[in-house]
Structure to design on (532 residues):
C-alpha cells in the first residue's frame, strides 16, 4: 500500500444553504533538480545495492507512475485534477549536464503537466537555456513578475498567468519568481524583475475582472515568501510553492503543516503547500469551493514516493537508454594533475588534507566575487583520492558523490568558532564533521574536552592573517548539507544570515577549478590546520 502522510486543514465558514460544491485536486511537485534516476535517503542517485534493497525514492519513472495512478483514480471517481510544477527542474545531476533541458521537456511532456512556474535554476544557462524547455513542452510555463519585453530570446514565450478549463470551471494560475534570481542564476540584463507581490496582485485582479473565481498562485520564491503572498495578495485561493525545499506534513522533520493556513487579505484562510524536493514526494492538495467560487475547505498530504510505487516501465526504459552517454561523460577527461590529491578518510577527518584544501579553495574561488572570504567543507563529504595524471569526471564524482550544492551565507566570528568546535567534537571517532577550510586557519587540541579544542583561529587579512573577530560578520561558503545542519553544524542552520543553499553542484565546481589550474597543478599543505 502506498504510504501517505496526512494532515488536514478545514476552513470554518458560515453555512450557505444547499449549494453545489466544486472540488479540485492539485497534484504538485517542486525543485525536482534533475533527479531523473531514483534517489537514496541523502537525495543523491541510488547505487545498485540500494536499489536492490528497495531503499530508493522518486526518480522520474516513479514520479510518472504516481501521478498517473492518482490522476486516474480521481478521474474514475468523477473528480477534477490538475498537475503543477513550481519550478527548478534544471540542475542537479549528470542528466542535466548532458541534455541541458531536453530531458526535462521530454519527461514532463510524457507525464502531462498542466502548468509550470519558472524556477531560478531554469536560468543557470542563461535565457537560452530556458528556451530549450519552453520550446520543448506544450503546456504553459509562466512567471508574472518577469518583464521580458527587452529579451529577444524570451519575449512572448513566458506568460504572466494561465486559465485552465477543468470540469466546467475556470482555474486561474498566477506566478512569481524569487527576486534575487539575478544573484543566484544567470537571467542576464534583459530579464527585468518586478516586485513579486505587486505583480501577483495585478495578475490576480486581471483574472478576477475576467470572471475567474478560483485562483492559485504557483510560485518559486520559498515557503516564507509564499506565506506573505497568501497574506497580502487579494483574490488568491491557494499558494503552491517551491524554492526553499520545504517539507510540510505531520512527520517529525516537517517545517509546518500541510497545507499551512494563512489569514488572507480578505480575512479568510489561504492554504500554502509545497512538497520538499528531489522527486521524493508528490504533493496532493484538495480544494473545495462553493458555487460562488468561495473556498470552503482545504486538505492534503505529501505522498512519499518509496519502493511501494512501481516505476513506469516505458519511462524507466527511456532513462536507461539516455544514461549511455552519461556513462561516457563519467569517462570524460576534464583535467590533469602533476601529483596525486590525497582524499583518504584517515587524512581528511583528522588533519589538513590535500583534497580538503583543493575543494575548499575551489569553493572559495567560485564565490569570491560574492564577498565570500571563508570556505568550510566537512571531511566526511570527501570520499576518494585522485591519482596523478588525467582526471575524469567520474573520478571527481567519486570524490564528491552526494550532489551537494554550494551554500553561501553570512556568519559572525563567534558562529564560525562554534562550527570549528563542532568539527573537532568527535575527533577521536574519526567523524566526518571535521572541518577542512580555506581563508581560515586554526589549531586543534584533541586532548582537550569537546567544546574547548579550538584555538588560534585566524582569517585572511590581505597577504597576511589576523585573529578572528567574534563580533564581526564574514561571508562564508560551504555545501548545502553542512549549511542546513548536517554533521552537527546546527549553528549554520539557526544563525546563518542571508543563506542561499542551491548554488552549483560541488563536483562541477571542483572540475572547473582543476581545469583552471592547468596540467601542472599539484596540491599542497600550507599549515591552515594545526593539530597539537
Amino acid at each position: 500500500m502506498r504510504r501517505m502522510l496526512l494532515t488536514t486543514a478545514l476552513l470554518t465558514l458560515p453555512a450557505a444553504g444547499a449549494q453545489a460544491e466544486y472540488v479540485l485536486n492539485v497534484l504538485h511537485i517542486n525543485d525536482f533538480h534533475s533527479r531523473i534516476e531514483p534517489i537514496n535517503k541523502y537525495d543523491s542517485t541510488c547505487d545498485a545495492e540500494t536499489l536492490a534493497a528497495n531503499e530508493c525514492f522518486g526518480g522520474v519513472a516513479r514520479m510518472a507512475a504516481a501521478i498517473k495512478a492518482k490522476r486516474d483514480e480521481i478521474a474514475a471517481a468523477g473528480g477534477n485534477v490538475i498537475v503543477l510544477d513550481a519550478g527548478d527542474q534544471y540542475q542537479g545531476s549528470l542528466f542535466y549536464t548532458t541534455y541541458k533541458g531536453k530531458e526535462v521537456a521530454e519527461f514532463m511532456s510524457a507525464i502531462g503537466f498542466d502548468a509550470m512556474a519558472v524556477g531560478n535554476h531554469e536560468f543557470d544557462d542563461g535565457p537560452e537555456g530556458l528556451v530549450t524547455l519552453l520550446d520543448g513542452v506544450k503546456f504553459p510555463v509562466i512567471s508574472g513578475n518577469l518583464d521580458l519585453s527587452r529579451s529577444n530570446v524570451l519575449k512572448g514565450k513566458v506568460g504572466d498567468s494561465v486559465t485552465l478549463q477543468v470540469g466546467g470551471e475556470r482555474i486561474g494560475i498566477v506566478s512569481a519568481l524569487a527576486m534575487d534570481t539575478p544573484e543566484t542564476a544567470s537571467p542576464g540584463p534583459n530579464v527585468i524583475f518586478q516586485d513579486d507581490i505587486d505583480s501577483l496582485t495585478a495578475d490576480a485582479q486581471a483574472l478576477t475582472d475576467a470572471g475567474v473565481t478560483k485562483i492559485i498562485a504557483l510560485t518559486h520564491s520559498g515557503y516564507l515568501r509564499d506565506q506573505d503572498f497568501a497574506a497580502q495578495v487579494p483574490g488568491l485561493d491557494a499558494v503552491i510553492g517551491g524554492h526553499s525545499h520545504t517539507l510540510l506534513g505531520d512527520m517529525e522533520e516537517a517545517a509546518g503543516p500541510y497545507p499551512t493556513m494563512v489569514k488572507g487579505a480578505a480575512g479568510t484562510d489561504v492554504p500554502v503547500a509545497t512538497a520538499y524536493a528531489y522527486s521524493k514526494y508528490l504533493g496532493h492538495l484538495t480544494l473545495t469551493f462553493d458555487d460562488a467560487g468561495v473556498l470552503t475547505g482545504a486538505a492534503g498530504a505529501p505522498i512519499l514516493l518509496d519502493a511501494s510505487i512501481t516505476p513506469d516501465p516505458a519511462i524507466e526504459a527511456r532513462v536507461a537508454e539516455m544514461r549511455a552517454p552519461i556513462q561516457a561523460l563519467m569517462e570524460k577527461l576534464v583535467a590533469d594533475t602533476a601529483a596525486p590529491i590525497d582524499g583518504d578518510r584517515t587524512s581528511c577527518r583528522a588533519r589538513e588534507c590535500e583534497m580538503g584544501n583543493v575543494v575548499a579553495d575551489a569553493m572559495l574561488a567560485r564565490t569570491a566575487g560574492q564577498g565570500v572570504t571563508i570556505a568550510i567543507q566537512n571531511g566526511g563529504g570527501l570520499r576518494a583520492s585522485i591519482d596523478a595524471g588525467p582526471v575524469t569526471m567520474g573520478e571527481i564524482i567519486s570524490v564528491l558523490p552526494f550532489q551537494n550544492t554550494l551554500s553561501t551565507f553570512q556568519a559572525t566570528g563567534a558562529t564560525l568558532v562554534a562550527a570549528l568546535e563542532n568539527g573537532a567534537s568527535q575527533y577521536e571517532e574519526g567523524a566526518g564533521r571535521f572541518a577542512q577550510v580555506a581563508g581560515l586557519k586554526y589549531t586543534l587540541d584533541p586532548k582537550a574536552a569537546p567544546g574547548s579544542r579550538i584555538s588560534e583561529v585566524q582569517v585572511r587579512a590581505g597577504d597576511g592573517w589576523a585573529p578572528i573577530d567574534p563580533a564581526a560578520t564574514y561571508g562564508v561558503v560551504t555545501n548545502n548539507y553542512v549549511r542546513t545542519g548536517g554533521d552537527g553544524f546546527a549553528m549554520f542552520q539557526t544563525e546563518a544570515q542571508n543563506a542561499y543553499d542551491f548554488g552549483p553542484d560541488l563536483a562541477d565546481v571542483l572540475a572547473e577549478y582543476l581545469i583552471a589550474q592547468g596540467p601542472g597543478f599539484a596540491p599542497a599543505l600550507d599549515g591552515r590546520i594545526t593539530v597539537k
Q: What stands out?
A: The first helix runs from residue 48 to 52.
